[in-house]
């Protein structure tokens, strides 16, 4: 079998690819650098010259060739490599007639625990949304512990240390009281605090036993993240921005997190994500894949989740339901309350619908930062 082509497929705010072969088998992938998809397209075109004529089964070899051939590396390049890697695993699974999880060691579970994000910004709204999720069968929710990110300028109160910490803590308290004890709260801080704020906030909500504290500070410094992790009993989660396995190893060595967040569409695909899972297992850490993207990303995550023993919980984008994105695939994901059933079809288990670009016109996400009350740039 030989690779014969690579088709770039933009749809909605996502970028998919289809790799074709001379035996009529194709594989589908998705890129993760959502703010720079035009840049990813350029990298994919550059990579296509190498891929044409290659044996699609040599996934590890192609991954290393493309990774090591680049003098400069970064999120755009790794997102392109991610899409290719996922598509090649899809091809190999289809060619052998098995789901990808069979190629990764076999299935450890039949369904995957999941959660949705609570995109509300007052304590009352967040509590109500958590209750609605619980009524739908979910037993976990991701709370956006930030200011109102829909605004371009932060309120003056966001500059007041006590107000910020107290407001964030009140949100967690309201949600815990609304859903009771049999429900996990994930605190997505979205890099919105500095280390002092993060520690004060974490200490004030430890009593509510959150599942984990996600990116309490910007994840640029492993040392700073380790310092925050050492000062709270809440496990820290990070890794969604990482683009190589060495970043995860550093986080583990410094005891900076107990939940790792690899993004299969940003890290380089399923190939490095499986390696991160093994590293985490050796360090008693769990994998909670980052997944803010389209159905190909979700499908790839499910294959990883199925094949690893140290899976924790899966992010399921709320816009899958709210944006009719089940219609992007020929068959929707099968759900069971707050769980997603592992697809058993060969490859990654899904197919994109025909004419997806026409049905979901491209609209690349914008890049933006929030401005603080005094005019400076503010982390949210």
TrEMBL record:
CDD domains, alphabetized: MR_like
Domain Mandelate racemase/muconate lactonizing enzyme C-terminal stretches: 123-235
One Pfam match: MR_MLE_C
Superkingdom to which the source organism belongs: Bacteria
InterPro entries: DgoD-like (IPR034593), Enolase-like_C_sf (IPR036849), Enolase-like_N (IPR029017), Enolase_C-like (IPR029065), Mandel_Rmase/mucon_lact_enz_CS (IPR018110), Mandelate_racemase_C (IPR013342), Mandelate_racemase_N_dom (IPR013341)
GO molecular function: lyase activity; metal ion binding
Gene3D superfamilies: Enolase-like C-terminal domain (3.20.20.120), Enolase-like, N-terminal domain (3.30.390.10)
Keywords noted in UniProt: Lyase, Metal-binding
GO BP term (any one): amino acid catabolic process
PANTHER family linked: D-GALACTONATE DEHYDRATASE, D-GALACTONATE DEHYDRATASE-RELATED
Name the UniProt record assigns to this protein: Galactonate dehydratase
Organism field: Enterocloster lavalensis
């Amino acid at each position: 079998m030989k690779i014969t082509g690579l088709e770039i497929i933009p749809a909605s705010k996502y970028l998919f690819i289809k790799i074709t072969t001379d035996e009529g088998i194709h594989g589908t992938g998705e890129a993760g650098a959502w703010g720079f998809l035009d840049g990813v397209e350029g990298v994919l075109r550059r990579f296509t010259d190498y891929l044409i004529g290659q044996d699609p089964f040599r996934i590890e070899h192609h991954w290393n060739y493309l990774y090591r051939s680049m003098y400069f590396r970064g999120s755009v390049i790794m997102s392109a490599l991610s899409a290719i890697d996922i598509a090649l695993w899809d091809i190999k699974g289809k060619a052998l007639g098995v789901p990808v999880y069979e190629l990764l060691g076999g299935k450890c579970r039949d369904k995957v625990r999941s959660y949705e994000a609570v995109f509300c910004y007052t304590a009352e709204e967040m509590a109500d949304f958590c209750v609605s999720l619980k009524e739908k069968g979910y037993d976990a929710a991701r709370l956006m512990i930030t200011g109102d990110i829909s605004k371009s300028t932060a309120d003056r109160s966001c500059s007041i240390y006590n107000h910020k910490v107290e407001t964030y803590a009140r949100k967690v308290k309201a949600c815990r009281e609304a859903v009771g004890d049999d429900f996990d709260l994930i605190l997505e801080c979205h890099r919105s605090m500095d280390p002092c704020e993060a520690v004060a906030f974490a200490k004030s909500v430890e009593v509510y036993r959150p599942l984990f504290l996600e990116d309490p500070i910007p994840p640029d410094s492993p040392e700073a993240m380790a310092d925050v992790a050492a000062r709270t009993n809440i496990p820290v989660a990070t890794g969604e921005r990482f683009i190589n396995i060495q970043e995860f190893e550093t986080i583990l060595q410094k005891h900076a997190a107990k939940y790792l967040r690899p993004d299969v569409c940003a890290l380089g695909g399923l190939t490095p994500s499986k390696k991160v899972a093994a590293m985490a297992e050796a360090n008693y850490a769990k994998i909670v894949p980052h997944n803010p993207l389209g159905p190909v990303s979700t499908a790839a995550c499910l294959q990883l989740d199925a094949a690893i023993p140290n899976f924790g919980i899966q992010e399921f984008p709320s816009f899958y339901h709210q944006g009719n994105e089940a219609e992007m695939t020929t068959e929707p994901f099968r759900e069971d309350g707050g769980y997603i059933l592992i697809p058993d079809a060969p490859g990654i288990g899904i197919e994109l619908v025909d004419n997806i670009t026409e049905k979901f016109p491209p609209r690349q996400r914008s890049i933006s930062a929030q401005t603080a009350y005094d005019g400076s740039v503010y982390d949210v």
